[in-house]
Amino acid sequence: MNSSTCSLTTPLCTQLGIRHPIFGFSHSVDVSIAITRAGGFAVLGVARDDPEHIARSIRQIRLAVGDRPFGVDLMFPRLAGDETDVEQVRKKIPAEHQAFVDHLTQKYKVPPATKPHFFTETVRSEALFSAQLSAVLESDANLVAAAVGVPAEVIEQVKRRDKVALALVGAVKHAKAAIDADVDILVAQGYDAGGHTGPVGTFTLVPQIIEAANGLPVIAAGGVGHGRQIAASLAMGAQGVWLGTAWLTTHELHLQDALVDSLITARSEDTVLTRSHSGKSCRILKSGWTEEWSSLEAPEPLPMPYQQALTGPLVAAVEEHGVKGLLYTPAGQSVAWFNQRESVDDVFNRLLDETQMALNCMRRNLGAS
Ligand SMILES: Cc1cc2nc3c(=O)[nH]c(=O)nc-3n(C[C@H](O)[C@H](O)[C@H](O)COP(=O)(O)O)c2cc1C
User: Fold this and answer.
1) Is residue 5 predicted with pLDDT exceeding 70?
2) I want to staple 38 with a disulfide (CB 3.0 to 4.6 A). Which of 186, 253, 325, 348 is the partner?
3) Which is one Pfam family of this protein (predicted)?
4) Mean pLDDT of 120-148
C-alpha cells in the first residue's frame, strides 16, 4: 500500500486532530513544521531556549501550519544547586574538572566560541523553568510535554489554559506520579531512546505503562525507527509512537555535515549512556567526547546544572567550529535505521509504508489474510 493512500490512525489521532499516530520530537522549527504538514504531531523541544526565543518559535510554527495542532516540550529536572547565574555556578566547579576540560580544549585545538550559546549564557534553574513555562502558557501551542519531572502545579496551569498535558515517563512509578498530577497522555520512553532515559527497555516498558495508565493514552518511545516497531507498539496497546533520532539526518534540521555523516554510518551499538552531556544520564552518539569522558583520566561528571556550566564553553566552541573529534549529539539506538540524508516527508512515508506491510504480514501470519 502506498503511504499517500494509507490511513493509519488511532483514537488518539481523532482526539488530537491529526492524521497519523507519529509524534516527532525536535529542537527545530523547520522539522516541526514538516512533521505537522506530514500529518503527524510535532513537539518542539524548548528546554534549551530563553522565553523570547520560545515565543518566537511557537509563532513561526503557527504561522506555517495554520490551525493544525502541535506541542512544546519543557524539562523540570531536580537540580543539585539553586544558583541562577552562570558565574555563581562556575565558582562551584572543582579545579580538577576545569583542568580536564582545559586539557580537552588544548588537545583538540578548539578555538574559543564567538557566538552566544545557551550553555554559556544560561543556568538551568527553577527561575528559568518558570519563565520558560510562562512563555509556553501564554502561547497558542496546543500541548505541553513535561520531561525529566512532572510537577503537579505545572500540569494544573497547563490544563487551566486548555492545553493538553503530556508526560514522558521511564518507569511505572513515574507514570503513577504523572497520573496523580492529572496528565492527559503518557509517553513511555525506554532505555533505547536518545536523550535522557531510564534503565528499562522500550519493549519491556511500554506494556507496563499501559497497564498502569488505567485507560489514559500511551505513546511508545525509544529506539523506534522502522514500521515494524510501529506495528509492534500498536499491538502492545500504544496509541502512537514518539521519535526523536529519526529527524536528525533530515534536510530540514541542517545539522553539521560531520555529525550527519557519523549518524548515517552509526549502528545501534554506537550510542552510549553518559552523564557527561548534562549531568543526568543521557544517550548520545559515541565520539571522541564520550571516549574522553570514559577514560581513566576523566573525572566523574558533575550533577546538573554544574556539568553543563563546566563544559558549556567547550561544547559551544565545538559546535560553532565543527570540531569533528568532539562533536556529538543525543541519539537513540534507532540511529541504525537512518542511513541517508532525506526529507521529513521521506521518513514519514517510509514509516507508514513499513507499518502497513508489517500489519499485513501479521494478519497473514495469524491466518486472517
Ligand atoms: C537530539 C535529541 C534531543 C533530545 N532532547 C530532549 C528534550 O529536550 N526533551 C525531551 O523530552 N526529550 C528529548 N529527547 C528524547 C525524545 O523526546 C525521544 O523520547 C527520543 O528521541 C525517542 O527515542 P529515539 O531517539 O530512539 O527516537 C531528545 C532526543 C534527541 C535525539
Assistant:
1) no
2) 348
3) NMO
4) 93
Q: What is the pLDDT of residue 368?
A: 75
- The rounded Å distance from CA 45 to ligand 1 centre is 8
Q: Which residue has the cell 503557527?
A: 62
Q: Which of 22, 23, 25, 268 to mutate to test the pocket of ligand 1 (most atoms within 8 A of CB)?
A: 25
Instruction: Verify cis geometry, omega within 30 degrees of 0, for the bond prior to 51.
Output: no
The count of other CB atoms within 10 Å of the CB of residue 147 is 23
Q: What's the chain's average pLDDT?
A: 95
Report the pLDDT value the prediction gives residue 6, as an integer from 0 to 100.
60
CATH topology of domain 11-79+123-248+339-360: TIM Barrel (3.20.20)
The residues, any chain, with a CB within 8 Å of residue 134's CB and separated by 6 or more, are 51
Q: Which residues approach ligand 1 with their CB closer than 6 A?
A: 25, 45, 47, 73, 75, 147, 168, 189, 192-195, 221-224, 242-246, 329-332, 334
Angle at CA 78, nearest 5°, toward 160 and 42?
50
Give the residue extent of every domain in the chain. Answer: 11-79+123-248+339-360
- 294 C-alpha vs ligand 1 centroid, how far in Å? 22
- Provide the pLDDT for residue 126: 87
Distance 158 CA to ligand 1 centre (A): 21
Q: What is the Å distance from ligand 1's center to 193 Cα? A: 7
C-alpha span between 265 and 287 (Å, rounded) = 13
Decide: helix, strand or coil at residue 139.
Answer: coil
Predicted local confidence at residue 86, as pLDDT: 82
Residue 369 has pLDDT above 70, yes or no: no
